[in-house]
Design goal:
It is a single chain. This protein is an alpha/beta fold. 31% of the residues lie in helices and 16% in strands. The protein contains 13 helices and 15 strands. It has a seven-stranded parallel beta sheet. Strands 8-9-10-15-12 form a five-stranded antiparallel beta sheet, with helices on one face. 43% of the residues are buried.
């Protein structure tokens, strides 16, 4: 008996030690180690987020959020002419900052909108390439939202509202700043000096982590310098090992000039990235309702914008290929989200309220999409396969080519309570008799979802 007890004790000690060893695993500042970190599960389950590009560029709100660079970096004619026609001689980009007032910014109203849109995470630009910070950065003197413009902590105020609604909060942060003298000097040295990195980029990243404890860091502005310059591997090792968000934080892949689609957390690869086949790594598509700009444009037209069917098709195709969909809107300088953007987001939310079962927490199925009889997208959640289709057939009969049916197969439509009739196809697939519904009884106005049970 005594020997048996000691054996049990030995097993327990070994188990505790093994668990402790797992708990204290530390990542080293090299890509092999950092890339081995498992992605926190919440991100893959979330599927849909809202992106916000907001800053001093929201004041001229002309062209795009790259206004300053196009105007004074590239001296593009359209931007130079815009300034000559609308502003006095000697007007500088810094003169826009006091007009970035955000007087109508209501973070609770924004958070309610994003929740109604069905978003599970929200990413705010804390600093774009212009260098202006939307919080009181200690290393951005007089070029931050506390010292000038809104005179409030935009990052903190929105974060508090987002978290009250149990949504995840992400911070976008640009590593470079176009016209910062320290960055310009480092760049002119061939990135042999790191005065900008240690005086600006890293202090701000650490400040964002410690002050706001974000769930996601959406890094950008990495493309000119190598990882050695940005010190990005050392920062990520600290983030994963010792930061207050080490267990939950998710990061993207924009950490150096050859990192995208290779290193980091999940992959963005490029803006509006659309893989044609199923990637073997978690990814995210970021896109904007206004295809011409991430920031607000005063001269946008309704015909410029993505319509709801286009947004929903992109969302579904992204998810069926294993990605997340991050949809951008650009708020105005005074803190409003344009009604047309609100309408688009609310329409997405109405669709997700009916069809979200096929989106949130789903995985790619063995077939991602069929286009032989009109496009059908597939997702898998638990033991159910979901087939999303965009074109309702005139005869109410839908052929679904890829499922293999069994005698126990059941088919329903999300938002419609009754079982649907179906029959097998040859050599595989099923033909479903869709319900006869009026315009007012359709569960969705566009894109409908069939739930398939007991198929392979």
């Amino acid at each position: 008996m005594e020997l048996y007890v000691w054996r049990i004790v030995g097993v327990l000690v070994f188990t505790v030690c093994l668990g402790f060893a797992r708990e204290v695993k530390r990542y080293t500042p090299d890509w092999k180690s950092l890339d081995s970190r498992p992605l926190p599960a919440w991100f893959d389950e979330a599927k849909f987020g809202v992106f916000l590009h907001w800053g001093v560029f929201s004041v001229p709100s002309f062209g795009s959020e790259w206004f300053w660079w196009h105007w004074q970096g590239e001296k593009q004619h359209a931007y130079v002419d815009f300034m000559n026609r609308n502003y006095p001689p000697g007007f500088t980009y810094a003169d826009f900052a006091p007009q970035f007032t955000a007087e109508f910014f209501d973070p609770d109203s924004w958070a309610d909108l994003f929740q109604a849109a069905g978003a599970k995470y929200v990413v705010l630009t804390t600093k774009h390439h212009e260098g202006f910070t939307n919080w009181g950065s200690n290393v951005s003197w007089n070029w931050n939202s506390m010292d000038t413009g809104p005179h409030r902590d935009l990052v903190g105020d929105l974060g508090a509202a987002i978290r009250k609604r149990n949504l995840y909060y992400g911070v976008y942060h640009s590593m470079l700043e176009w016209f910062n003298p320290l960055y310009v000097q480092d760049k002119s040295s061939g990135f042999k000096t790191q005065n900008f990195v240690f005086g600006k980029t890293l202090p701000e990243l650490v400040d964002l982590v410690q002050r706001y404890k974000p769930d996601l860091i959406w890094s950008d502005g990495d493309w000119e310098g190598p990882a050695e310059y940005w010190h990005s591997r050392e920062f990520l090792a600290w983030l994963y090992n010792d930061s207050p968000i080490k267990d939950k934080v998710v990061v993207n892949d924009r950490w150096c000039n050859n990192c995208s689609c290779h290193h980091g957390g999940y992959y963005n690869c490029a803006d509006k990235y659309k893989p044609g086949t199923l990637p073997d790594h978690k990814w995210e598509m970021c896109t904007s309702i206004d295809p011409y700009s991430w920031g607000y444009r005063r001269n946008m037209r309704v015909s410029d914008l993505m319509d709801v069917p286009s947004i929903l098709k992109e969302l579904v195709q992204t998810v069926c290929f294993g990605g997340n969909y991050l949809l951008n809107v650009g708020p105005t300088k005074d803190g409003m989200i344009a009604p047309i953007f609100q309408e688009r987001l609310l329409d997405v939310g109405r669709w997700l309220k009916v069809n979200g079962e096929a989106i949130y927490g789903s995985k790619p199925w063995r077939v991602q999409m069929d286009n032989s009889t009109g496009i059908i997208w597939y997702t898998l959640r638990k033991s159910f396969v979901y087939a999303v289709f965009a074109n309702w057939p005139a005869n109410n009969t839908l052929e679904i080519p890829s499922p293999k049916s069994t005698p126990n197969t059941n088919v329903t439509m999300l938002g419609v309570p009754q079982l649907l009739k179906w029959k097998p196809s040859k050599p595989q697939g099923i033909v479903v008799q869709l319900p006869i519904l009026t315009q007012s009884t359709l569960p969705s106005k566009i894109l409908w979802t069939l739930k398939l049970e007991n198929i392979s």
